[in-house]
C-alpha cells in the first residue's frame, strides 16, 4: 500500500519549504497529466474501431513518443502490442515509469484498478467508465467510494465519465473521442477544459477546420477529484497555453476556480467560459423572493464577473473570441455614477464598405446594450481630405471609396486613436471572398493597440479568415457572435478586491441567530438579525392577540402575523396597514388571526407584530443566498410583492465592498427613480449601499450558516434620511 496523497492545502512544518514543495508537486502532476513517459490503457480492446480500442490507435496515429502499455487480462497482444494481465505486470515490463493510466473497465471494476495504480506507483488515472455520480444516488455513492480508494492509494483522478485529454504539442491524444480521427492536429495556444466529453471533440474539430491551434484539451467528467479550477491552475503555468476556454455545466469547487482565474488574469492568460443552464427551473425550491429570483446560472455569472472570467453566450464566440483578448488586459473600471440612466455597455465604432452586413452588427450591438458611435469629427475631416464624404449616423460606411488605397487604413488609424470609441468592428463584404488580400489588407496593417478590434466577414471567406487568424486578429462568421464577443470583451474587468473580514464584530448577529428556536426565523427575530448587522429596522412590538394590553402605541401602525411558516405574509392575509387607533388595531388582530387560520391552518403562530408605519421614496429588495455552486451572493432589486415578476436585479458574490454596492445600485434599471430620474427626488443611495454591504457580511457568520436572508421591502428615504427595513426573513442551515 502506498502512502496516501498529502493534502496540498495543509500547512507545512517548514513554511519556507512549502512554496517550492507545492510547485514541485504541481509540476509533477502536470507532467503526469500532459506529458507522461508511459501510459497504461486498462481495458484496451483489440478492435481498433471500438471506443476502448481507439486510444491506442490514436496514440500511434498522432505519433506519441512515450511507451503505450495495453492492459487486457484476456489477451497476450492488443493491436500488435504486447498486452498485460494487470497494472503490476505492465509496470514490471516497462523500462520507464507509468505516469498515467486510462481506465476503461466497467464501473464495478474501477476501484480495484485505481488501487492497482497506487500499488504500481501510477500517479494519475483518467477514468472513462461511467455509472457514477451522473447515474443518481447509487452512482454518487460509488463515486465517493472510488474517491476514497484513490486518496488512500495516492492517485489523482480525472473523471469518472471522462473522455480523456489531449496534449497537441506533445502528440499525446489520450482520449476515445472520434474527433482524433483527423489526419493531423494543429498545435496552438488555446487550451480547453470541458465538463462535457463530447464537447472536447466538437471544439477540437471546429477549431482545427479553421486553422485554430490547441495546446491542451481536458474532459474533466464528473470531477470527483481534479476539477476545472485545479486543471486551470496547472494551465496557468503551461508555457504553451495563451488562453483557456471553459465549457461548463455547473460550478464545482468555486474557491479553487476563483483563485486559479485570478492567477490566470495576473499571468495575462484570458479565461473565457461558455456555460449551460440559463433555465431557472430550480429556483422554485427557494423560500425567499431573492432565492426564486437568483437561479444558479445568475449566481454563476456574478461569480465569473467577480474573478475576471469572460462569459460568452454563444459556442461560436468561445472559439472565435480569444484573439480579441489575448495580449491585452482591461484597465480597472471606476464605479459608475449613481445617475438616472445606467451607462451604456460600451461605445463601438462600426466601419464598413457594405452597409447591409454592417447594419446586422449595429443592430445586434444595440440589443446587447452597446452604443454604436458616429464617426468622430477628426475622422470626417481626414476622409474629406481624401475626397470621401460620409454621413453622421451610427455606421461609418465608406461605400466603394473604402476600397481605394489609403482610405480604409486612414479610417482605422483615426478610430484606433479616438478617445470616444471603446472598440472597433470592421465589416468586410463580398470582396472578402474573392479578393482577400485587398479586403483585409488595411486591417492586417492596422497598428496594434489595447483597443479591441473585431472583424465580421459577411460572405463565406475562409482565406480571409485564415489571414486574420495568422495575424492574431479576431474574425467572426456571424454578426451575433461578433457582437457577443465585443460585449464580453468590453465587460471584462480585473478581478474585484474581496473583503477578507466583516466590517465589525458579528457576535450580536450570531447571538440573534442562536436565540431562534428553528431554522426559519419569523419576521421579528429576522429583524433582530438585520438590526445587529447595522440595517435600520422599523420599531415594533409583539402582542399575542386583540385582548392584550395595547397602551403606549403610537399610531398609525401596521399589523403583521408572526409565523416561521408564513414567509410571504400578504399572501395569507396576514398584513393590515395604516391602522389609525386602538379599536382598529384590535379589529385587525382578530381579522388577521382568522384569515391565517383559514389559509394556513397548520402554521404555528408566535404572535402579532405591531410595527410603526414607515414611509420612503421607493421599496427595494436586499437578499442573501448561499448558492450551492459559487457560495454566498447578495441580491439587489426593485422590492415589494412584484419582485419575482419584474426580476430586475443585480447580483454579486459575497462579501462586497462599498464600491461593489454602488455598482450594483447603478445597474438596476428599476432604481432609476431613486437616482433622480426626470427630476424625481433622489434617494439615500449611500445608506442603501451600506445596507447591502451589511447584509453581505452574513457570509462570515459562524455556527449554523445562514442559508437565505432577505429584507423586502427596504424603504429608501430621501437623500440623507437613510433606509429602514419593514419586513424580513432569515433561514439557517439545520
What's a concise summary of this model?
By secondary structure, the chain is of the alpha/beta class. The chain has four domains: 18-276, Rossmann fold; 334-491, Succinyl-CoA synthetase domains (Rossmann fold), CATH 3.40.50.261; 539-613, Dna Ligase, domain 1, CATH 3.30.1490; 618-732, D-amino Acid Aminotransferase, Chain A, domain 1, CATH 3.30.470.20.
Beta-strand content estimate: 15-25%
Total DSSP E strands = 31
Rg over CA atoms, rounded to whole Å, is 30 Å
**CATH fold-type name of the largest domain:** Rossmann fold
| Strands ordered across the widest β-sheet | 9-8-11-10-12-13-14
Q: CATH class of the largest domain, anyone?
A: Alpha Beta
Q: What is the strand and helix layout of this fold?
A:
Layout: H1 18-34, E1 38-42, H2 54-61, E2 67-71, E3 77-78, E4 81-82, H3 87-93, E5 100-103, H4 110-119, E6 124-127, H5 137-153, E7 156-158, E8 164-167, E9 172-175, E10 187-194, H6 197-209, E11 214-219, H7 228-236, E12 243-248, H8 254-266, E13 271-275, H9 289-293, H10 296-306, E14 309-312, H11 315-320, H12 322-325, E15 347-352, H13 355-367, E16 371-372, H14 377-385, E17 396-397, H15 407-417, E18 423-428, H16 431-434, H17 436-444, E19 453-457, H18 462-470, E20 474-476, H19 479-491, H20 507-514, E21 520-521, H21 523-533, E22 540-543, E23 557-562, E24 575-579, H22 582-599, E25 607-612, E26 618-627, E27 631-638, H23 643-646, E28 649-653, H24 658-667, H25 685-696, E29 706-716, E30 723-725, E31 728-732
Parallel strand pairs: 1-2, 1-5, 5-6, 6-7, 10-11, 10-12, 12-13, 13-14, 15-16, 15-17, 15-18, 18-19, 19-20
Antiparallel strand pairs: 3-4, 8-9, 8-11, 21-31, 22-25, 23-24, 23-25, 26-27, 26-29, 27-28, 29-30, 29-31
Helix pairs in contact: 4-5, 7-8, 13-19, 14-15, 17-18, 20-21, 24-25
Amino acid at each position: 500500500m502506498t502512502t496516501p496523497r498529502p493534502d496540498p492545502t495543509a500547512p507545512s512544518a517548514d513554511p519556507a519549504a512549502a512554496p517550492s514543495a507545492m510547485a514541485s508537486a504541481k509540476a509533477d502532476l502536470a507532467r503526469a497529466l500532459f506529458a507522461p513517459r508511459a501510459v497504461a490503457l486498462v481495458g484496451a480492446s483489440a478492435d481498433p474501431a471500438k471506443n476502448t480500442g481507439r486510444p491506442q490507435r490514436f496514440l500511434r496515429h498522432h505519433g506519441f513518443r512515450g511507451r503505450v502499455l495495453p492492459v487486457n487480462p484476456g489477451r497476450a497482444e492488443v493491436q500488435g502490442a504486447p498486452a498485460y494481465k494487470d497494472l503490476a505486470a505492465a509496470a514490471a515490463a516497462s523500462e520507464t515509469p507509468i505516469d498515467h493510466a486510462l481506465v476503461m473497465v466497467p464501473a464495478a471494476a474501477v476501484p480495484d484498478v485505481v488501487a492497482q495504480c497506487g500499488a504500481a506507483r501510477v500517479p494519475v488515472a483518467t477514468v472513462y467508465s461511467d455509472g457514477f455520480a451522473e447515474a443518481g444516488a447509487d452512482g454518487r455513492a460509488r463515486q465517493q467510494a472510488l474517491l476514497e480508494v484513490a486518496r488512500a492509494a495516492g492517485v489523482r483522478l480525472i473523471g469518472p465519465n471522462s473522455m480523456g485529454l489531449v496534449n497537441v504539442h506533445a502528440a499525446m491524444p489520450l482520449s476515445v473521442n472520434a474527433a482524433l480521427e483527423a489526419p493531423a492536429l494543429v498545435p496552438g495556444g488555446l487550451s480547453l477544459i470541458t465538463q462535457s466529453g463530447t464537447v472536447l471533440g466538437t471544439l477540437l474539430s471546429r477549431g482545427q477546420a479553421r486553422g485554430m491551434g490547441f495546446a491542451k484539451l481536458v474532459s474533466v467528467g464528473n470531477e470527483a477529484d481534479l476539477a476545472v479550477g485545479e486543471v486551470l491552475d496547472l494551465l496557468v503555468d503551461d508555457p504553451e497555453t495563451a488562453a483557456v476556454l471553459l465549457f461548463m455545466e455547473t460550478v464545482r469547487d468555486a474557491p479553487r476556480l476563483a483563485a486559479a482565474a485570478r492567477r490566470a488574469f495576473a499571468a495575462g492568460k484570458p479565461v473565457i467560459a461558455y456555460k449551460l443552464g440559463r433555465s431557472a427551473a430550480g429556483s422554485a425550491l427557494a423560500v425567499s423572493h431573492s432565492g426564486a429570483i437568483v437561479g444558479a446560472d445568475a449566481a454563476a455569472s456574478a461569480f465569473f464577473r467577480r474573478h475576471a472570467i469572460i462569459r460568452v453566450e454563444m459556442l461560436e464566440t468561445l472559439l472565435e473570441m480569444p484573439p480579441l483578448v489575448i495580449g491585452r488586459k482591461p484597465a480597472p473600471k471606476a464605479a459608475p455614477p449613481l445617475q438616472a440612466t445606467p451607462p451604456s455597455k460600451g461605445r463601438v465604432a462600426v466601419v464598413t464598405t457594405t452597409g447591409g452586413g454592417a447594419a446586422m452588427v449595429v443592430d445586434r450591438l444595440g440589443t446587447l446594450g452597446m452604443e454604436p458611435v458616429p464617426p468622430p469629427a477628426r475622422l470626417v475631416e481626414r476622409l474629406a481630405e481624401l475626397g470621401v464624404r460620409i454621413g453622421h449616423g451610427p455606421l461609418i460606411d465608406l461605400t466603394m471609396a473604402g476600397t481605394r488605397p489609403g482610405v480604409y487604413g486612414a479610417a482605422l488609424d483615426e478610430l484606433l486613436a479616438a478617445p470616444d470609441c471603446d472598440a472597433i468592428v470592421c465589416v468586410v463584404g463580398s470582396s472578402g471572398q474573392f479578393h482577400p488580400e485587398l479586403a483585409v489588407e488595411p486591417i492586417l496593417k492596422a497598428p496594434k493597440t489595447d483597443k479591441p478590434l473585431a472583424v465580421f466577414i459577411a460572405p463565406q471567406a475562409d482565406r480571409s479568415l485564415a489571414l486574420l487568424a495568422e495575424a492574431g486578429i479576431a474574425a467572426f462568421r456571424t454578426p451575433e457572435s461578433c457582437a457577443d464577443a465585443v460585449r464580453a470583451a468590453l465587460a471584462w474587468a480585473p478581478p474585484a478586491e474581496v473583503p477578507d473580514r466583516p466590517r465589525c464584530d458579528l457576535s450580536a448577529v450570531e447571538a440573534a441567530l442562536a436565540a431562534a428556536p428553528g431554522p426559519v426565523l419569523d419576521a421579528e427575530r429576522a429583524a433582530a438579525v438585520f438590526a445587529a448587522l447595522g440595517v435600520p429596522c422599523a420599531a415594533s412590538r409583539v402582542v399575542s392577540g386583540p385582548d392584550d394590553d395595547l397602551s403606549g402605541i403610537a399610531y398609525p401602525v401596521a399589523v403583521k402575523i408572526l409565523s416561521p411558516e408564513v414567509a410571504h405574509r400578504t399572501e395569507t392575509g396576514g398584513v393590515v396597514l395604516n391602522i389609525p387607533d386602538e379599536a382598529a388595531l384590535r379589529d385587525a388582530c382578530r381579522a388577521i388571526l382568522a384569515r391565517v387560520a383559514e389559509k394556513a391552518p397548520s402554521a404555528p403562530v408566535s404572535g402579532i407584530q405591531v410595527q410603526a408605519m414607515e414611509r420612503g421614496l421607493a421599496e427595494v429588495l436586499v437578499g442573501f443566498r448561499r448558492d450551492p455552486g459559487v457560495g454566498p451572493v447578495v441580491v439587489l432589486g426593485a422590492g415589494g410583492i412584484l419582485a419575482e415578476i419584474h426580476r430586475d436585479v443585480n447580483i454579486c458574490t459575497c462579501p462586497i465592498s462599498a464600491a461593489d454596492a454602488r455598482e450594483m445600485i447603478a445597474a438596476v434599471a428599476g432604481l432609476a427613480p431613486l437616482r433622480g430620474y426626470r427630476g424625481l427626488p433622489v434617494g439615500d443611495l449611500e445608506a442603501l449601499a451600506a445596507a447591502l454591504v451589511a447584509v453581505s457580511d452574513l457570509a462570515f457568520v459562524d455556527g449554523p450558516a445562514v442559508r437565505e436572508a432577505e429584507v423586502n421591502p427596504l424603504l429608501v428615504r430621501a437623500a440623507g434620511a437613510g433606509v429602514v427595513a419593514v419586513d424580513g426573513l432569515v433561514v439557517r442551515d439545520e
